[in-house]
Amino acid sequence: MSLVQKIVKQAAATFAGSGFDSAAFEKLSTLMNELKPTDVNMTSDPESVLAKPSERAAPAGYMEILDDSNFTCVIFMLRKGRAIPLHDHPGMHGLCKVLYGSVKITSYDPPEKLNLSKSGFFKAKYRGAETFSADNGCHFVLPTEKNLHTIEGLTNTAFFDILAPPYESYGARGCTYYTEIPKDVVDEELIARGYQDMIESDDIKLLRRSGQPGWFYTSVEDYKGPPVEL
Ligand SMILES: [Fe+2]
User: Fold this and answer.
1) Most buried by CB count within 10 Å: which residue of 25, 28, 76, 187?
2) For the residues of 117-168, what is the DSSP string, one character each?
3) Residue 149 Cα, ligand 1 centroid: separation in angstroms?
């Protein structure tokens, strides 16, 4: 059985119930940590998959491996110097294993209650930026930890991604994009209004809900790795 098939089977078992089973989650990440580009028949720079002279060059692309009702499994490709803008994964778990190249992932914890004001501003805990390469294990997204992130391609990169439960185009689990308001802008505004005591520490950031930036779009590419079934 191919490693990808083993991963898909384990993901199905891990995300079958409604509760969170940390042992099953660890089994899945252990399998994913073994993934190499050759396991998905990716034998050259992912940029060559994205570079289609007949099309406008998308900053990112993805290959769908499996779209199940409990989880999705895709390979994302990102060009060097391009980014997936700040977005969330409402109520979802995510595992991301870099196959090729390296990425910088900047994460935030979501607020306990996402109570957006009309203006769409809210505070989130900044969890820092981490670099993940093919040599590293999985990066994790949890419903209450590091649920919001930006992913930047430090090189041309490809990563294997499992999300559970999947996003919904219509419903409670839509993907929302955000922008971070620079701290100096926030502080200046507070000082100008006489609210110095409201200046937060460096690990609290002010975010604002925004639409999907026009510069970010993806191309859909064919998955050429081993077939999978549930
Ligand atoms: Fe994400």
Assistant:
1) 28
2) -TT-EEEEEEEEEEEEETTS--EEE-SSSS-EEEEEESSSEEEEEEEESPP-
3) 6
Residue 179 structure tokens: 């922008």
Distance 110 CA to ligand 1 centre (A): 13
SS percent in the chain: helix, strand, coil, step 5: 20, 35, 45
Residues 194-224: tens digit of each pLDDT: 877 777 778 888 888 888 999 999 999 999 9
Tell me how far the alpha carbon of residue 156 lies from the centroid of ligand 1, in angstroms.
Answer: 17
What is the CATH code of the structural domain delimited by 3-48+59-168+175-213? Answer: 2.60.120.10
Secondary structure class of 91 (helix, strand, coil): coil
The DSSP call for residue 43 is -
CA of 137 to the centre of ligand 1 (A): 17
pTM summary value: 0.91
Q: What's the gap in Å between 217 CA and the centre of ligand 1? A: 14
Residue pair 172/136 in contact (Cβ under 8 Å)? The answer is no
Enumerate the domain spans of the chain. 3-48+59-168+175-213
CA of 150 to the centre of ligand 1 (A): 7
How many angstroms is it from 94 CA to the middle of ligand 1? Answer: 8
Tokens of 126: 């900044």
